[in-house]
Specification:
The complex is a heterodimer of chains A (162) and B (101). The longest helix of chain A is centred in the middle third of the chain and has 25 residues. In chain A, helix 2 packs antiparallel against helix 3. Chain A is built from 6 helices and no strands. Chain A is globular and about 55 Å long. In chain A, 23% of the residues are buried. Chain B is mostly helical and 101 residues long. Chain B has a single domain, classed as Helix Hairpins, CATH 1.10.287.3510. Chain B is 76% helix and 0% strand. Chain B has 3 helices and no strands. In chain B, helix 1 packs antiparallel against helix 2 and helix 2 packs antiparallel against helix 3. The longest helix of chain B is centred in the last third of the chain and has 31 residues. The chains are: A mainly alpha (162), B mainly alpha (101). Chains A and B meet through helix 1, helix 2, helix 3, helix 4 and helix 5 of A and helix 1, helix 2 and helix 3 of B.
Chain lengths: 162, 101
């Protein structure tokens, strides 16, 4: 049962990721990206990362995807019905990327990975919070400053000239 | 399903699809969406190595940082794309090869 769920989630993730890069319509790409994010959330749950799964839904689906859809809407004229775009050098890109997948797959399958024994933790938030406030306090503060700067910069950049 | 290799293969496919999008797409927003795919692939790798490396929580912290950086990057990139659209009236990144009009 769990096996079937895993492969269904993998199928949703990979299939909708393919739609994202392949779809003619930019809006369809954005909606396919929604399903990719949800599929990745499912993979996080399989990886026992419950907190990261919630963060993924809140930040990616609730924040970034909405931002991207706003970007699509704002960069197309209302009168132009066809919100589409073309790709270039598709065959060349496909050849290179398939070769790249082959290389990565060969590397992954031929490496003898050392898997440590592990037990499913009861919660991950406690450990993450402890790490964030003890071992990774400086990166944590730096990242919050960066986020503040990026958001102020984004508002300054995108407002109308005064 | 309970093996590291499965997760690594899924993440490498996601990464390659994102790379394909970055290389072939001409629309700025579409390139941004492909970059999000690449970041998600990296996150799956972090969490997979965390889970199969004895549930090492450092991977989770780094995945959290990646998500924060993705949010900041999306906000700034969309602001730049909207500015490009206002100045050039297109977001086809091949047509935007000059710093000013």
């Amino acid at each position: 049962m769990s096996d079937i769920a895993f492969w269904v989630i993998v199928g949703i993730t990979v299939g909708s990721a393919f739609m994202v890069v392949q779809s003619k319509s930019l809006l369809y790409s954005a909606y396919a990206l929604l399903f990719t994010f949800i599929g990745v959330t499912g993979l996080y749950i399989f990886l026992w990362a419950d907190f990261l799964a919630v963060v993924q839904v809140v930040v990616y689906v609730g924040g970034i995807l909405v931002l991207i859809i706003f970007g699509i809407m704002l960069t197309n004229k209302i009168t132009s019905v066809n919100i589409s775009h073309t790709s270039m050098q598709k065959s060349m890109g496909a050849v290179v990327v398939i070769a790249f997948i082959g290389l990565l797959g060969y590397m992954i399958l031929s490496t003898p990975w050392l898997v440590l024994s592990n037990a499913e933790p009861s919660d991950t938030t406690r450990a993450i919070g402890r790490l964030l406030l003890m071992d990774y306090l400086l990166p944590f503060e730096a990242v919050s400053l960066l986020l503040l700067g990026a958001l102020i910069g984004a508002t300054t950049l995108s407002r109308k000239d005064t | 399903m309970d093996s590291l290799v499965n997760y690594l293969l899924v993440s490498s496919i996601l990464f390659s699809l994102g790379l394909y999008g970055v290389v072939t797409r001409r629309n700025g927003v579409a390139v941004l969406m492909s970059i999000e795919l690449i970041l998600n692939a990296a996150n799956i790798n972090f969490l997979a190595f965390a889970r199969f490396g004895g549930m090492n929580m450092t991977g989770h912290v780094y995945a959290l940082f990646v998500i924060v950086l993705a949010a900041a990057e999306a906000a700034v990139a969309l602001a730049i794309i909207i500015n490009i659209f206002n100045n050039f009236n297109t977001i086809n990144i091949d047509d935007v090869s000059e710093l000013k009009q």
